[in-house]
Amino acid sequence: MNPIVQQQYTELLQAAADAEASLPQVDRCAQLIADALMAGKKVLAAGNGGSAADALHLCEELVGRYKNNRRALAAISLTADGTALTCIGNDFGFDQIFARQIEALGTSGDVLVIFTSSGNSANLLLAIEAARARGMKTVALSGRGGGKLKGLADVDWIVPSMIGARVQELHSWALHVILEVVEARLV
To answer: Whole-angstrom Cα distance, residue 57 to residue 52?
Structure first.
């Protein structure tokens, strides 16, 4: 077997084991999101690169379904609209691509969910700031110590790994946990 395969698997197992102590934070993230959705509020989600894919994944499962047929839930991935991203990026700068959308779409009681492996992207830091200004709740899923984002969200889960791929793999796990908690609350 290729040693890369074993190394990657070993790193994943280690990251998952290291994350066990922080599982209550994952539950807090899930409950905050579920509370907002149960109250008729919406989720806005954002991230860059692979984390943008996590934002898309969370939102499509909330609007569609995860495991169970249930009512559609309001969720918008701020990474999904290429025309908005390029317009805002061109006119206001890349740092504003999420904050500007939050200004337009976010309302008090909604939840902003941030996915980031580093926690240092200026556009995500400004997104948290914009969400707070709108009276929104904030959830940050990060890694690598949390970066500049650490402690800025109402609830955060920092994957205890310095390896971006492991952080993103555990973020994928966490978003599935969030979806399962939300659907269980809808029953």
So the answer is: 9
Classify residue 76 by its DSSP letter.
E
Residue 134 domain-assigned (yes or no): yes
Instruction: Return the DSSP state at 64.
Output: S
**Is 80 within a domain?**
yes
Residue in 158, 94, 95, 159 with CA at minimum distance from that of residue 129: 95
Q: Tell me: the pLDDT tens digits for 25-60?
A: 999 999 999 999 999 999 999 999 999 999 999 999
Dist. CA 153–CA 136, nearest whole Å: 10
Assigned domain for 156 exists: yes
What pTM value is reported for the model? 0.96
Residue 144 DSSP label: G
Alpha-carbon distance values, 49 to 60, 134, 168 (Å): 17, 26, 11
Residue 57 forms part of a structural domain: yes
CATH number at 140 reads 3.40.50.10490
Angle formed by the axes of helices 164-186 and 50-63, to 10°?
10
Closest CA to 110 of 81, 84, 73: 73
Sequence-ordered list of residues with C-beta below 8 angstroms from that of 167, at least 6 positions apart, any chain:
15, 117, 142, 143, 144, 159, 161
